[in-house]
Amino acid sequence: MKKIKFKEIKELLNKNSIEVFSNISDDEIFSGIKTISNASDKDLSFFSNQRYLDSLKNIKAKACLYLFSIKHALAFIFFKLSKYL
Q1: Separation between Cα atoms, residue 64 and residue 56, nearest integer Å
Q2: Whole-angstrom Cα distance, residue 4 to residue 82?
Q3: What percent of the chain clears pLDDT 90, i.e. is strictly above it?
Q4: How far apart are CA 37 and CA 56, in angstroms?
Q5: Rounded Cα–Cα distance for residues 9 and 20 (Å)
Q6: pLDDT confidence of 11, banded at 50, 70, 90?
Q7: In angstroms, how far is CA 45 from the centroid of its own chain?
């Protein structure tokens, strides 16, 4: 899989009218996008269902994205993970 910079992900989402909030550098590089249970420290993971909240305790991903809606508009929050979660 092609490695992707965070800046490219943000540009794609913005192009589709999806707002992005993040503490991640535009130069951050990800090897792939994987589920919470399959992600490594080089991957981006995602979280969109509250029933998987406990899974975040064991996540190994470099960063995680969270999808939410604001007044019928979609937005993503990206947050960099640390081992102190």
Answers
A1: 9
A2: 20
A3: 18
A4: 9
A5: 10
A6: very high
A7: 5
Q: What total number of domains does the chain contain?
A: 1
Q: Is the pLDDT of residue 64 over 80?
A: yes
How far is 44 from 65, CA to CA, in rounded Å?
Answer: 7
N residues, the chain: 85
Residue type, 63: A
Q: What is the CATH number of the domain that holds 40?
A: 3.40.1390.10
The residue segments making up the domain with residue 19 are 4-80
Q: Is residue 85 part of a domain?
A: no
- The mean per-residue pLDDT over the stretch 45-68 comes to 80
Q: For residue 22, give every residue at least 6 positions away whose Cβ sits within 8 Å of its Cβ, in sequence order, or none.
A: 6, 10, 77, 78, 79
Residue 34 is assigned to a structural domain of this protein: yes
What mean pLDDT do residues 37-64 have? 84
